[in-house]
Each structure stands twice: as structure tokens, then as C-alpha cells.
Design a protein that fits this description.
Elements lengths: L1 H6 L8 H15 L2 H12 L16 E4 L13 E4 L3 H11 L7 E6 L7 E6 L7 H5 L6 H20 L9 H22 L6 E4 H6 L8 H10 L10 E4 L2 H12 L3 H16 L1 H4 L5 H28 L2 H23 L8 H12 L16 H5 L11 H18 L31 E3 L4 E3 L4
């Protein structure tokens, strides 16, 4: 319980990220399952409400500003919301990190490793898709799984205080049928062996001539959230082209209401589960919440631990030991004779040794002034938020960090193009850094070439 006590200490003079971590931990402890449904319903009002989704020209839903109830009234307390599925997708991608329907990410350009590029790829995979793909070959087992899936949608509707009739069986069938088509398109695209294609945003727009996927609007809206302006000359890497050709066909035969309802359902199923996992008893709840806090605020808590338990004398002594070992290894390397063909290997080893971090137990940058604050700078102060809201705020902050990578500059090539996703720390230290691991009686060196 020492770590729990550490997290609960006075944070008046602590860095802001640690304050956020403390609030997150408290929100987790206080979370109540009954709140989840209400919060999910409120969050979905931004995309027109769910399951009574408003849409474009086909139909309109009036949403009560006070309580989210749908009514037919001209009262000043009511607003008219006409939300297209693309608006819903933009919110899902920027605030919920929902790569649903369209897969979009910022990656290191495989061709020019000093730059990032926007990649259009397959959407996020769902485990139910294997079942949905086989649902045409009806068997009792498959039919049961599909019916259970539909029942889970109805179950969340009821949890959120909606009457079952408001999301009728026909709409459920249409949403599941839409997801089945996505599953089939995804599976077929995996067999597509065509190479990724470099193109401009303007050329990408032309790949959807009937404008079923308004690429220009979607991408500009997404990157506009982090003040990045995309022109039609913006380079794009398009992967699995067959999926997007098929997606155009699917969208052309699917109503806006079904698509937006599907996006809402993906949000509910993904984030509503956080409340289902919360333990009831106090001890297990504390352990669960501590693990959740470390998941989202690992660097902030490392910083707190270092400040509390790593005194300056100990840090300096460790740094001296590391420096001595580092110097010895570099000098010893110089005495080793190698054939000309092996000199490059020798130089690579030397570069690795020179990049040995000076500290043991945590990354150097964590102790540097303002670096942790910078890392979590996109996360708002959610002191008035509940547990699920806290999670969404963290996810939104991480997503903004990922989107900003598109304009990040590098002074040298990145050695490993397969860097981690949203929470990559390559902004702060090189991926080639060699870390020392402390064993019981000796130091362990992990060389990776």
C-alpha cells in the first residue's frame, strides 16, 4: 500500500501532471456504475444523441439542452441538430481515438525517415467481425452469437435510460448488417497484396469521385483541432486500396442514421466497459485504480517516485558509476582490432555506448525540467470530471499529440521506423538509447542492433 499512500500525498507543490494523476485516481475510486450510462448518453449528444441520432437531410432530431431528451417542440430550450456521419467520425477520431470505419494515423514516413506522414489504413479490428463474416453460413452457434451481440446493444440502450422501442430491432439489424459489410471488406483487404501508394490529398479526393468519403472535409477537420492546415498537396500514404473502394460502395447504400448510430455504438461498447471492470470491494478497487493510473500516467508517477525516493546524492553516485562503466567500455572497444568489413559494426557499438543513459531506474528526460509537463500538456484539468470523462480527456490529449507529429521536425534519420503509437516518447529521447538494467550482483547491458 506504500504506492497508494504516495499517490495520495499532498500535491500542492507537485507538477501539474501529478495533480492530474491524483485526480484520475480519485475519480476511479469514486466511480459508480450507475453514472456510466448517464455520462455516455451526455457525451453522445455531441453527435446528435444515441440511439435517437439526428442526421443530414433525411431526418432531424430535436435534442433538449437540459436533459438530452428528444421531443418535438419549438421551445427556446430546444436546439435543432443536423449531424452528418462525417461530423460524428471527426469527433470519434479526435476525442475518442476511434479509428472506426476509416483508419487514419500519423506514422514515420518509410521513405524519408526524417519526416512523418499521414497514413490511411484499415480501420480498427473488432473481435465480433469473425462471427459476422460467417453469419451468411447460418449455424445455431453463429446465430446465437449474433443474437447475443444484438442483445448487448439493446442492453446498453436500456442502461442509458432509453426505451427499447427507441432503438427498434430494424435499426439494430441495419447497424449489425453495416458492421458485417465492414468486416467482409476488412477481411478481403487483408488478401490485397498491392503496395501502399503515395499520393497527395488532392489525388486521394479523386479516388472517391462520388464523394461518399469526403476526404478533404474529414482530414482538414481532424487536423484543424491541432491547428494544422492541410493543403491538397499534402502527401498521403494510402494502404489497402481495395478496402476504400469497397467502403465507397457500402456507404452509398447505407443511411446516415445507421452509420452515425454505429459510431455511437462503438464508443459505448469500448468505453462503457471500463465501468463493468471496476471491482466492488475496496482493496481490489484500489489495486485496479492504481494500475489504471499507471497505465495513463506512468511518466508522471515515475517523476513523483524519483523526487520522493531518489535523493540527489544517490543519483549523482549512480551517474558516476554509469559514467565510469561507459568510459571503460568505450576505451576497451578502441583496443579491439577488426577487419575493414566489421568496422561499421564497431562504430555502431561505439554509438550505442555513447548513448548510455546516465541514470538507472528511469529515463533521463523524466528528471528534466518541464519535460513531463510538456508530455501531458494536452490533457485538460478535469477536476470536475468523473472517471470515464477523465479517461476520455487522457485519450484526447494523446490523440492531439499523435496528430501534431505530422509537423514534427527531426535533425537526423530515425533508426527505427516502427516506433510506438500515440504515447511514443521519441519526442524526448532517441530510440537508440542504451539503458542499463540493475541485476542483483551486476549490471546487465542490452545491446540491440
Amino acid at each position: 500500500m506504500a504506492k497508494l499512500a504516495l499517490l495520495g500525498t499532498s500535491l500542492v507543490r507537485r507538477p501539474v501532471p501529478v495533480q492530474l494523476a491524483s485526480t484520475f485516481y480519485k475519480n476511479c475510486l469514486d466511480a459508480a456504475p450507475y453514472y456510466a450510462a448517464k455520462w455516455l448518453d451526455e457525451e453522445l449528444q455531441d453527435i446528435g444523441g444515441w440511439p435517437l441520432i439526428s442526421n443530414n437531410q433525411e431526418e432531424t432530431t430535436t435534442v433538449n439542452v437540459e436533459n438530452g431528451d428528444s421531443e418535438s417542440s419549438d421551445s427556446e430550450d430546444l436546439v435543432k441538430a443536423s449531424v452528418n456521419w462525417t461530423d460524428s467520425y471527426v469527433k470519434a477520431r479526435t476525442e475518442w481515438n476511434g479509428n472506426w470505419i476509416i483508419g487514419m494515423s500519423v506514422i514515420i514516413n518509410p521513405k524519408y525517415r526524417t519526416k512523418y506522414i499521414l497514413k490511411i489504413d484499415l480501420p480498427e479490428y473488432s473481435s465480433i467481425w469473425d462471427t459476422l463474416k460467417e453469419s451468411d453460413n447460418t449455424t445455431d452457434i453463429i446465430n446465437t452469437k449474433v443474437e447475443d451481440y444484438k442483445a448487448s446493444i439493446r442492453g446498453w440502450v436500456e442502461k442509458m435510460g432509453r426505451k427499447r422501442g427507441q432503438l427498434n430491432n430494424q435499426l439494430i439489424d441495419e447497424v449489425v448488417a453495416f458492421e458485417k459489410e465492414l468486416a467482409k471488406a476488412y477481411s478481403a483487404a487483408l488478401m490485397d497484396k498491392s503496395e501502399d501508394k503515395y499520393m497527395s490529398l488532392g489525388e486521394l479526393i479523386e479516388t472517391s469521385p462520388e464523394r461518399k468519403i469526403p476526404w478533404e472535409f474529414v482530414l482538414r477537420e481532424i487536423f484543424g483541432t491541432v491547428n494544422i492546415t492541410l493543403s491538397k498537396t499534402e502527401p498521403i500514404l494510402l494502404s489497402h486500396q481495395s478496402y476504400y473502394k469497397r467502403l465507397d460502395e457500402i456507404l452509398s447504400t447505407t443511411s446516415n442514421k445507421v452509420i452515425t448510430t454505429y459510431i455511437g455504438w462503438k464508443f459505448v461498447s469500448q468505453y462503457g466497459g471500463h465501468l463493468n471492470d471496476l471491482p466492488v470491494d475496496e482493496v481490489n478497487r484500489e489495486k485496479y485504480c492504481l494500475q489504471a493510473t499507471f497505465k495513463y500516467y506512468s511518466h508522471a508517477l515515475k517523476r513523483l517516485y524519483v523526487e520522493k525516493y531518489f535523493d540527489s546524492t544517490s543519483r549523482n553516485r549512480v551517474a558516476t558509476i554509469v559514467k565510469t562503466i561507459k568510459t571503460y567500455l568505450i576505451n576497451n572497444l578502441q583496443t579491439i582490432s577488426m577487419a575493414d568489413k566489421d568496422r561499421e559494426m564497431k562504430n555502431r557499438i561505439k554509438r550505442k555506448l555513447e548513448k548510455i543513459e546516465g541514470l538507472v531506474g528511469y529515463d533521463d528526460w523524466i528528471a528534466k525540467k518541464d519535460k513531463v509537463e510538456e508530455y501531458y500538456s494536452d490533457i485538460p484539468d478535469y477536476s470536475d470530471r468523473k472517471y470515464l470523462g477523465s479517461i476520455i480527456d487522457v485519450i484526447t490529449g494523446q490523440t492531439y499529440k499523435e496528430l501534431r507529429r505530422l509537423r514534427q521536425k527531426f535533425t537526423k534519420p530515425i533508426p527505427n521506423p516502427d516506433v510506438p503509437g500515440i504515447l511514443s516518447v521519441d519526442s524526448f529521447f532517441d530510440q537508440e538509447n542504451l539503458k542499463l538494467g540493475k541485476s542483483n550482483d551486476f549490471f546487465l547491458f542490452n545491446f540491440t542492433f
